[in-house]
Amino acid sequence: MANLIDKRLMLKEMQLESLFETISAINANKSEEDLYTIYKLTLSSNPSISNLLLFVFDEDLQEHVRYVNYGNHDHDLTERFPKLFEDYTKTSKVKVKPEGFENFDTIIPIKHKNDVLAYALVGVASEKHIDFHDSGFTEALSNIILVAIENKKLARKEEKQKETKKQLKIASQVQTMLFPRNLPYGDDVPVSIHASYMPHHSIGGDYYDFIQMTDTKFLISIADVSGKGVPAAILMSNFQGTIRALARRNMDIESIVHEANTQILESAQGENFITAFFMVYDTDTQCIHYINAGHNPPFLYNENKFSRLEEGTTILGSFTKLPFIEVGEINNLRKFFVFGFTDGFTETYNDEDEELGDDKLLEFLTANVQFDQKKMHKNLIALLNTFKGHQAYADDITLLSCKVDLEKS
């Protein structure tokens, strides 16, 4: 009896010393691998424990992964753990255990707040050692180790989030710099351009531009890249650089679109595409040439009526060579208005799951076409906010309007 008490006392002393060493290792910021090693060595030194498995839930893989393995048992248990665990928890009070669990006597869930981080499967060595098996200590050690590891994961996640936010902020600032800083605007100028941009996230995939090609010719464009975040922003910045370089070389609009398609395909390798609209106007010839590359057709207001600018080609970045391309041409334009937008605007839904749609946009434009552009954009955004109710914006939103009146030259 005295010998049994001495052994128990010795085991308790070893456990206390192990807990102290474990806490010291945690305070010393030991690696996760070191903490798992301490866990295994500590429990395997207990003569009553013959088998030990620790399964930790991996958020990335969305499955349990074995991190500790000790003893003689069915090693295929790793692959069958989720189903076996479900069976075992349902039958753990039954003498006949499911296949693979014969060498385990208990399962200990390790929790952090309300979440189960892991499961420890413990097998007792023999009847003579049964008194030495201390499930309370095993559970305490498991919780200390696993919570410490979870805190490490959370700390890494927070650091990663901080770094991501920092990168997104920088990317957002860079993207903002890509938009044209000074657009010609006013009631007394022959060409007036105004744009409104509302990114869904800190970095958007929409783009607009105004490029003075020659003294008499300019290009406006509006585009939307598939995908979101930094990759979309990088692709859009490359796209912008290509368009500006080609436009300033005074290339014709068809050549610009072909070159842009090639650049997007090389940059995105077919993983992303861009819808875009390009329009070139020459004040000398009083003619517009445009290409709509799979984009929402802008509205043209001329001679007191609206029409859509639909001629063009398919989306950019999906075909090595564009399967077809048509250049739209409209002549004798001395006074007109063009309004372009991305699909984030018309595809906004309200609380009744109704889409804003093109018809409501056209109705608004018809009633507000005589307003100055800034007021028009402001009223249009107010209309959108009223329409969507409690619904969030589903995508980036860009509005681009161009008014030309050569009588003001």
UniProtKB/TrEMBL annotation:
Gene3D superfamilies: PPM-type phosphatase domain. Residues 188-404 form the PPM-type phosphatase domain. It comes from the Bacteria. Keywords: Coiled coil, Hydrolase. One of its GO terms (molecular function) is phosphatase activity. The keyword Hydrolase applies. Residues 147-174 form a coiled coil. Pfam families: SpoIIE (PF07228). SMART domains: PP2C_SIG. The keyword Hydrolase applies. PANTHER family: STAGE II SPORULATION PROTEIN E, STAGE II SPORULATION PROTEIN E-RELATED. This is SpoIIE family protein phosphatase.
